[in-house]
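re: ur question from earlier - yeah i can do the single chain one, its not a big deal. heres the input i used so u can compare w yours
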Amino acid sequence: MQIIKLINHPLAFGLELVLFFGVGYWGYFQGKTIFTKWAIAILCFLVLVTLWALFASPKASMRLKFPALSIFKLLIFSTGTFAFWNLGKALWAIVYTVLFMVSVALSQIEETS
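and the output i got, formated as tokens:
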């Protein structure tokens, strides 16, 4: 079980960072003016960080329990896949999807054992 933690915790943290960057990057390209580009990018980033901090971070006061946490992670990480795919980064989207599915599966194993 310890090996799962050693693998999954850094993987999950890296995926979170990629998620926040990817959705912010996507948001930037949705605006028409420089102001709206930055406003949408920052708003997308802040919404995801807030949701993650409230419901999924290890020290969250309102942390979801299994299986709701796994469903939440799948939905949140899917926004990263959508962002990369929408930006024309299909390979990034596919690799990201495979990695987040592995991470969520490892989290389920960790939670249920």
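Helices lie at 2-28, 34-55, 68-86, 90-112. not sure if urs matches, ping me
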